[in-house]
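Dear colleagues,

As part of the handover before I leave the project, I'm documenting each prediction I ran so the next person doesn't have to rerun anything. This entry is a single chain, and its sequence is reproduced below.
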Amino acid sequence: MRADRPEDAPARRILVLGGTGTIGRATVRALAARGHAVVCLVRRRDPSGPADPPALPAGATARVADVTYPASLARDGLRGEPFDVLISCLASRTGLPDDAWAIDYQAHVNALEAARAAGVTQVILLSAICVQKPVLAFQHAKLAFERVLIESGLAYTIVRPTAFFKSLSGQIDRVRRGKPFLVFGDGLLTACKPISDDDLGHYLAECIDAADRRNRILPIGGPGEAITPKAQGEHLFALLGRAPRFRHVPVALLDGIIAVLSILGRLVPALAAKAELARIGRYYATESMLVLDPTTGRYDARATPSTGSDTLFAYYARVVRGEAVAERGDHAVF
């Protein structure tokens, strides 16, 4: 018997998308620790080079396949083998419209169809809590696939986490170098309940055998109270033994940047992409990553469930002491 798998629950053959990202790796570790057989589909790192699957825990293997092409998905990924569960931690790297619709939507549709043909009866999808107030292309793409999954007839669990530690760690080096901590407005515009990769990975793995999580959309955050950007900065300065210093950036500045880039983007496509990235930045600067009360239109920290034991401030302390590395990946805010 492996960790945390119910005694009467069988080991499964699990197909994982996005298993080499920080959250994906944590999920694969949790699955392997529970004794499941895990196959991770990974993208080729260099399109012109040889296949280069990453090292994974015992019990997990990697197969290089292109989920945007159904033929590669079937030939290189599933290989005619049966699977029980599909788990996706895959997300578009940029959030730009073309990338979002190709990965957050179409690649997932491809994987769902291939997984169903391989015998999968259960799907666990890592989504995002920001889709509850969609204004950006990647949010609409995620919601479009959520609808496809819900209507598929397969058992599903859609997990919508709040902020990740990696997304809130971009200013550690900046503050170490003696610079002020950047906040939008007064630093109290937003709040979140960040969750660690390992806590989220365990939660996703537990969804396989948790009957009360079946056919549900589940927001989830980490332990403790909701944290504002100002509180993040104050705690980071305290860890470094320095007096807090903040630089307050007006949201109107972002609005001006977006307006200019949008106009110029009509002539230069690269600037249109920058305008969308600026819109993404503005969204996260002004919207809390908490459960949204549809009746009041306000974010509710008390209604945002918590799980796990690792806190953002404990993680900050490990990074400051050199015991952890802030692995930010493609989705850092700063």
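The chain has a mean pLDDT of 91. The chain has ten helices and eleven strands.

All the best with the project,
I.
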